[in-house]
Amino acid sequence: MCEIPLVRLDPDVPVPSYAHPGDAGADLVTTVDVTLAPGERELVPTGVALALPDGFVGLVHPRSGLAAKHGLSIVNAPGTVDSGYRGEIKVCLINLDPREPITLRRGDRIAQLVVQRVERARFVEVDSLSETARGEGGHGSTGGFAEPLISAARSTS
Ligand SMILES: O=c1ccn([C@H]2C[C@H](O)[C@@H](COP(=O)(O)OP(=O)(O)OP(=O)(O)O)O2)c(=O)[nH]1
Ligand SMILES: [Mg+2]
């Protein structure tokens, strides 16, 4: 377990914590009340700033319950918090529900921070790349909705 120095920019904000042993994400809260109309987005402050150790990244993920129940997501999911960043963590929330506004109150848990080790790469220019089974196939090269992998005859409701 790595230790991450944290500064509370808002004295009322809880230190991010994991809800259960084994959880990957520590919950982040909003320090402001905010209402998002359908389709609206807003950059929301969380009241915390971190000093992630070199070699680590913080990924700001949506919470699945708010996504499933209300359509709340994060525009740039997952947001990338660099180890050199010392500013307040902010979350670019978006209401993807087509009809209902979403109201969030100060202190509501709006996102979860996943801390991961990260590799830094050195990009080395070459004349050609090694061959693989996939090759240049991408963006649907293996098929899409037209070729379901479960036969229609057995799908019952
Ligand atoms: O959800 C997020 C994503 C990013 N950040 C902060 C930390 C991160 O280190 C910094 C820059 O993020 P990113 O590199 O994704 O944004 P950019 O648009 O490339 O900005 P910059 O030019 O500052 O790198 O913004 C957050 O607070 N929340
Ligand atoms: Mg950047």
TrEMBL record:
Q: Where is this region: Disordered?
A: 131-157
Q: What catalytic activity is recorded?
A: dUTP + H2O = dUMP + diphosphate + H(+)
Give the gene that encodes this protein. dut
* Molecular function via GO: dUTP diphosphatase activity; magnesium ion binding
| InterPro entries according to UniProt | dUTPase, dUTPase-like, dUTPase-like_sf, dUTPase_trimeric
- Protein name per the record: Deoxyuridine 5'-triphosphate nucleotidohydrolase
Query: What family, per the record?
Result: Belongs to the dUTPase family.
Instruction: Identify the EC number(s).
Output: 3.6.1.23
Task: Sum up the protein's function in the record's words.
Answer: This enzyme is involved in nucleotide metabolism: it produces dUMP, the immediate precursor of thymidine nucleotides and it decreases the intracellular concentration of dUTP so that uracil cannot be incorporated into DNA.
Which pathway is this protein assigned to?
Pyrimidine metabolism; dUMP biosynthesis; dUMP from dCTP (dUTP route): step 2/2
